[in-house]
Amino acid sequence: MYAFGILLLALLIMNINIELLHDRPDLIPKVVKWCYEEFSYQTPEESYEDWLADFKNQASNINKLPICHVLLKGDQLLATASLVEHDLDSYEHYGPWLANVVVAPHLRGQGIGTNFIAQIMRIASGFNRKFWYLHTSDKVSFYTKMGWEVVERANGVNFDTTILRVANG
Ligand SMILES: CC(C)(COP(=O)(O)OP(=O)(O)OC[C@H]1O[C@@H](n2cnc3c(N)ncnc32)[C@H](O)[C@@H]1OP(=O)(O)O)[C@@H](O)C(=O)NCCC(=O)NCCS
After folding, report:
1. Is the CB of 38 under 6 A from ligand 1?
2. For residue range 116-130, what is the model confidence (pLDDT) as tens digits?
3. CATH for 18-167?
4. How do the domains of the chain map onto residue ranges?
5. Residue 23: is its pLDDT beyond 70?
6. Is 55 helix (H, G, I), strand (E, B) or coil?
7. Is the CB of 106 within 6 Å of ligand 1?
């Protein structure tokens, strides 16, 4: 709790803060572009317009899922993450999910993703769900280092992935 307070204070001093996509609709095109470039191979049946519609829906929510948060330094978009009910076809028995986590490519490897996810999961804890899930094809150790546990290997339409979970809070 104390460490989290220090972290928030440090971010405040650096003018870094988390906002709802709801409050920054101007960022929807950039968020969609980042997520589409990273993850659209997992949903080949969905067009860019489908992704745009999905994020517009997320941006319409304030305190219910699906919801999207962005990490900003001043006006600069540093990272984005979504909290959603469903993220992987055929695995609807799991959820809710942390999804669409992206850090600006030129800012990776500096601890931004780790800190941002920690803050997003604190926000997620407010939804009072038992576990949060995510799936990743190639970042399993990144998440296990943060306390997530592997649930099972899984199959998407055209990719292999691993489902992980973390207890709420
Ligand atoms: C995955 C992702 C969100 C991680 O964000 P990030 O800001 O690079 O993450 P961090 O910097 O906190 O940690 C990444 C690595 O850098 C290391 N690191 C952390 N702080 C560091 C620092 N100050 N200097 C150098 N390396 C550091 C971490 O230990 C971690 O190492 P690992 O690769 O051995 O696990 C980012 O790479 C990304 O957007 N990838 C593309 C989309 C994606 O794959 N999203 C996840 C889908 S599940």
Report:
1. yes
2. 999 999 999 999 999
3. 3.40.630.30
4. 18-167
5. yes
6. helix
7. no
